Amino acid sequence: MASPINCLSILVIPLLVTSLFYQVSVGQKLDDAYLRSLCQKTTDHDFCFNTLKADPRTFKASADLNHLGLVTIAILIDTVQVEVDEIPGILKKLGDRVDKSRMENCQYDYNSALKILRDAYAAFSTQNYNGAKSLIINAGNGLAGCDQSYKDPPARTSPIADALTKVLKKRDIAVVVFDTIIG
Question: Which CDD domains does this one have (predicted)?
């Protein structure tokens, strides 16, 4: 019969090995070289590096990959919040019924995305990395309806098309960070 210590070691040793691996990947200290290597996995390497480097939250004293995950969500929240704040002013300037309807739909989409991103931040904070990643992807996908409405006849250029491009690029950054954390 196996002793209780042998049984315990069978359970504890794999957990210790797993936790060591987790600490190595998440405990990665952030520096320019690491950010560059991470950003090489995104569609726009320079945009990724410049976005992360410019945000003062990226390089805290104890900043690691886990911290960077939260920062990428915060960056997305900030970006979407800017558009949520600007859309009412855009709506006031619109006279055309079709344009106004499209922008009202965009307003709904951006408000929904903002809520989803806040939920992603909460999920990430509880170490639900896969859930947070799914929410971030869903938030970006939800904004595609706004973009698509401007492609429908009569096709026009969305006044917030550049903002959507930035959101999707920043979503790409977050997904790469999450994939690295999740392993």
Answer: PMEI
* Residue 148 CB coordination number (10 Å): 12
Tokens at 170, concatenated: 């920043």
Q: Are 135 and 119 in contact (CB under 8 A)?
A: yes
pLDDT digits (tens, 9 = 90+) for 77-111: 999 999 999 999 999 999 999 999 999 999 999 99
| Angle in degrees, 0-180, between the axes of helices 32-39 and 45-54, rounded to the nearest 10 | 140
How large is the average pLDDT for residues 122-126? 97
Give Cα 105 to chain centroid, integer Å: 22
Q: What is the pTM of this model?
A: 0.83
Buried b (16+ CB within 10 A) or exposed e, 74-89: ebbbebbeebeeebee
